[in-house]
Amino acid sequence: MEKLIFGISGVRGIFGSSLTEEVGERLGKAFGNFVKNEKGQRIVVGRDLRKSGELVKSSFIKGIISTGCDVIDLGCCATPTLLFNIQALKVDGGAVITASHNPEEWNGVKFAGLNGCFLNAENVEKVYNFYNKDISDSSQTGKIITDNEGTKRHSSAVISKIDKDNISKKHFNIVFDGCRGVLKEEGKLFLESLGCNVIEENPERKLEPLAENLTGLAERVKKESADAGFAVDPDGDRLSIVNEKGKAIGEEYTLALVGNWLLKKRKGIVVTNLSTSKMIEDIAIRNGNTLLRTKVGEINVVEGMKKIGAILGGEGNGGIIDPEIQYTRDAIVGMGRILECLASTGEKLSALAEKIPEYYMKKDKIIIDDKTSIAQLLSSLPFPKEKENTEDGIRIDFKDGWAHIRKSNTEPIVRIIYEGKNKDIMHKLDEWVAVLKSANI
What we know:
The protein has helices at 21-37, 53-65, 79-88, 121-131, 150-159, 164-170, 183-193, 215-224, 252-262, 279-286, 298-308, 331-345, 349-354, 371-379, 423-438; strands at residues 5-7, 10-14, 42-47, 70-76, 93-97, 106-113, 144-146, 173-177, 197-200, 228-232, 239-242, 269-273, 290-294, 312-315, 319-321, 360-366, 385-389, 394-398, 401-407, 414-420. By secondary structure, it is α/β, with parallel strands linked by helices.
């Protein structure tokens, strides 16, 4: 039987195998005991639209209330919606039933604390320790309260922070791909509330909003002569963009475009992770700001942002973290900021993207688990090293490029991401990666 994957992104497993209803109840009991141990009592819970979602959520809630904690059930909602409501409802923690971009057979739980942020590695370890203990039920069963206003609270809060009036005047035509997920309705309503004419596109695509998965959306944008196409992932925290010419520009451009707009008005430090494109680094520097990189994982970026009072954060997977709204990746925020930029500049998305420093990036998956061997292969990169970072796997920086290899937080794989300033560098890196993938390690 496959094992559950426990990490800073919560827990994930294959439903019916490593993740069963019994396991879901045990996870709920573990999280309930964690919250009680932190002197808490009330927990908000939601889920995405996976077929196994209701079964996992019901068993998870059953486990929570067995500890004596109360549950506020938001039903189906986006991950950033769940996190927003932790603070809006002043509860002691929250959990969302989701496996994000993992294939349909997967499901999982992301845990969050009373600050509306995911648990860090130390606190996830505490939940895991409770999971491994045989703790009897509380003498008092907690209550379950249904709340259907969570999505409305979240969207209204985002709208209050962006220039709604200016956006509404433009009457943008937007093709929206909600990935058959929780933002299918919420995202559409959000865009319509900003005066957009929304054309729905829900193709049977792969779940990650990568450029190569958005051919249907790109064709629809071109056919409809739309101003933009927006695509999200199943739990609504990642945004990818198609420009008005019907070109999927890639999820790495989301943070870069939002940064190029906001960093003209904000001064300070931007935080992203070690696997994110240098585009945002160049943008930060040319606007008089600086950039800090953290380990991969949303909570690592968030903790870095909070520690230094960052003005913007995010990840190259299409995740925007705007501290003026909340400390989590949020596709709704991303759409709002992109529309705000389009409305204020009067420029097309293709023209805005041309102002972003150009890099070539590739992302791959490999089966390697020997860190020493990885280090040896990285030392053989066809470029002289300028900097090496072993904080999260290994990242090597060299003139006009970099490579990063690390174990995934969410899947039993090793990820390799590499980027270069020109095609010659990428060709050499492609050859190096081919050697890396063929090595019998």
